[in-house]
Structure formats: C-alpha cells, structure tokens
Fold this sequence. Notes:
Chain A: Keywords: ATP synthesis, Cell membrane, CF(1), Hydrogen ion transport, Ion transport, Membrane, Transport. Helices cover 60% and strands 15% of the residues of chain A. Chain A is α/β, with parallel strands linked by helices. Chain A has a five-stranded mixed sheet, sandwiched between helices. Chain A is elongated, with a radius of gyration of 28 Å. In chain B, strands 1, 2, 3, 4, 5, 6, 7 and 8 form an eight-stranded mixed sheet that branches. In chain B, helix 1 packs antiparallel against helix 2.
Amino acid sequence: xxxxxxxxxxxxxxxxxxxxxxxxxxxxxxxxxxxxxxxxxxxxxxxxxxxxxxxxxxxxxxxxxxxxxxxxxxxxxxxxxxxxxxxxxxxxxxxxxxxxxxxxxxxxxxxxxxxxxxxxxxxxxxxxxxxxxxxxxxxxxxxxxxxxxxxxxxxxxxxxxxxxxxxxxxxxxxxxxxxxxxxxxxxxxxxxxxxxxxxxxxxxxxxxxxxxxxxxxxxxxxxxxxxxxxxxxxxxxxxxxxxxxxxxxxxxxxxxxxxxxxxxxxxxxxxxxxxxxxxxxxxxxxxxxxxxxxxx
Amino acid sequence: xxxxxxxxxxxxxxxxxxxxxxxxxxxxxxxxxxxxxxxxxxxxxxxxxxxxxxxxxxxxxxxxxxxxxxxxxxxxxxxxxxxxxxxxxxxxxxxxxxxxxxxxxxxxxxxxxxxxxxxxxxxxxxxxxxxxx
Lengths: 296, 133
C-alpha cells in the first residue's frame, strides 16, 4: 500500500506530464496549419511540372534515346530506398510506419536477390533502420536546422542522389514518405523516382496546348528533358518532405491528444485512491482514539 | 487589346497569376516577347528579367534564375526555381553568386560541369548588365 505522500507525488508528476503533452499538442496544431499551407502552396508547381513532363514524355515516342532518368538504366539489380522520416519522436506511429514499410520492401528485394541500398533523411528513420540494415545504409541527412523544409534542402538531397545515379551506384530509386490525408490518417507511401513515373498525358493539357499540337522546343526536346528531369526529382522530393512535415505534425497532434486524455484518466484514478486512503487513515485514527478512550 | 493568362509559379508558392497583354521572357536561346495567340513553345530560361505588361504602358519586372516556360495560345506558365521582385535584387547579391560559381568552377575537375558553370557565370554577368539600367 503506497503512502499518502507517494500518491501525492505520483499525481503531481502525472499532472506535469499532462501539461507538457497538452502544450506539445497545441504547438503541433499551430505547426500543422503552417505545414498544410506550405504543402498546398507548393502543389501548383509540382502539378504543372509533372503535367509538362507527361506531355514531353508522351511526345518522345518509343523512348529511343530517352534520358536514363526517364527510362531507367535498363537493369533492375540495385535498388536505392530513400527513406524520409522526421528528426523527432513523440509523434505516434509516424516514424515507425514509414521505416517498417521501407524495411519490408528491403527484405523482399533482398530475398529476390537484388542489392539494396538505403539513403535516410531524418534522424529517426536512420536510428530505426540502422539496427537491421547497418551495411545497407549509405548515407543519412538530418533535417535539423533546416526547419521549415525549403526547396534548397530538397535540391541538396536530389543532387546527392543524382551524383550517385550518374556514378552508376543504383538502377531504381524509390522514395518513402508519409502522405498526409488528415490529422488522424497518414499513409506511408512508396513512390518510384527513377525511372520517373509520370502521369498519363492523355486527356491532360498544359496551358491550353494539347499534347498532339505541334510543340516547338527551345533548345531541343532532349535538351529540355535533360534539364527538367533532375528538377522533377527535386520537386518530388520537396513534395514528399512537405507531406511528411504535415503528417508529422498531424501524427504528433493526435498522439499528444490521446496522451493528454490518458493522463487525465490516470489523475482521476490516482486521486480516487488518494482520497480513499486518506479517509481510511482518518477512520483508523478515530477508531484508535475511541477504543483507547473506552479502555480507560 | 487582347489578353492572356499568365502564371508565374515558384516551388514554394505561386508568385503571380493574372491576365496580361504581353510577357517578355529571357529564353536560353534569346529574349522573346509573348503576345496572345502565340504558337505552343516550351523553352528553358536563363538568368534574367521577366517583364510583364498588364495594361499598355505599365510593366512589372521580376528577376528569375533558371526555370522554364510553357507557352500556349491562351496562357503562359513559367516555372521558376528562384525568383524575386526586381526591387529586392541588388548587384551585390549577383556578385556573390558569380563569385560562388567561379569558386565551384575552379574546384571541379569535371569538364562538363565546368562548362555548365562557365555558362552560368556568363548569364549572371549578363543579368547584372540588364539590371544596371
């Protein structure tokens, strides 16, 4: 039976924990709004980019002489998994669900006899994957210090990946991140980056010019593709990072909300025990006094 | 006078969207002015200044650093990687960029990259001249 003092201490400690989780929830809510606006204002660029690329790729019939970034190296031996997570924890299953998806795919690829390489963005994903895939991880970038995520950070990552691709270190690249659906639902997603997965150009028109209209290109079509494809990589990574930022805050918000609620329940239960024990003590003391008086 | 729709989109946000009469773009193969009913062209952009004419006589100038333009008969979309209103750009900033590019050029041994950076330096110097007046 814990003493009254123990119980009191326990209640105070749960109360201060509750204060922290409540504050974190509110901070996450504020940050979520900002992250959501950032994700929304970044969307037109990504959409226009992939629509244009889709048109271009459709025009490039047969894909003969298509850049490697678009058509792949032709091989399917070495896979690069780019795993984007957060730098901080306390956000529910956010980090672990992304890492778990990546780990699952990595094991599957390995069992098919393919070489797997892992590139992690964010400290948490690195920490989780490091245990199982120490040898496979080739690089890790922390997000810390570049908050909120900006385009320059995305292009820094893209450059590193491109350099490795040009060096022939891998054939296929897949990006892992968490798509933001709503505050309570974030979906871990795998997206193929190289070879580029493009939307069907059919039925889509960019800026009023249909895909089959004779387009002029300055410089040549290949020249434009050569500059656009690396940019597209950056844009896709940037988009993933923005989605991740929103997902992280959403996950943290709901995790902290339930933590606050659990703390409230705990306080209620402990207070009840505390009061009951206090009453029992008083009754016991009274009985002692009365029986002492009676004995006289 | 006829107008067309002009969108100017940066990776982080949309910077300009509206009906305009003409747009002057710094294409990689030369400056070009786009008027309504232009033939569809896709062009990459160099470092330079975009001039937007909303109504005759008034112009808005935007500094742009790389990107591309998708031109159609009814609308023009510019996707720029870096952009700023002309008032926010000063020669000192460009000087810094040129210096950085030169440093990068001297540091690399890759010939292709060297050429690329050289072209970039030339572009930046041109942009400086354009900004000067």
